[in-house]
């Protein structure tokens, strides 16, 4: 089943974060994921959204997402994100409406 990642990031060091961004697609593309949205200033409908960047990713499944996240290629670049930002990241499984 399709899986989604929602990431709320607060970037504190844009220069170091750029090193993460420069390698992201090369580490991401082999896993069949889709980069659905990257937003610096999303329109807040309710509540508060305290971050400097919001990212929405799609993967074929939770297992594929976890394989990407633990892959050597991603682990090589994620250290730059850790050094340059804080994040709240969730993994969601897609929803299929069951009809009677």
Defining traits:
4-stranded antiparallel sheet; single chain; 100 residues; flat; alpha+beta; 3 helices; 31% strand
What this model shows, in words?
- This protein is of the alpha+beta class.
- The chain is 37% helix and 31% strand.
- It has helices at residues 14-28, 62-70, 72-84; strands at 3-11, 34-39, 53-59, 85-93.
- The chain has a four-stranded antiparallel sheet with strand order 2-3-1-4.
- The longest helix has 15 residues, at 14-28.
Largest sheet: 4 strands, antiparallel
Structural class: alpha+beta
Rg, alpha carbons: 15 Å
Please give the order of strands in the largest beta sheet: 2-3-1-4
- What count of helical segments does DSSP give? 3
In short:
The protein is an alpha+beta fold and 100 residues long. 37% of the residues lie in helices and 31% in strands.
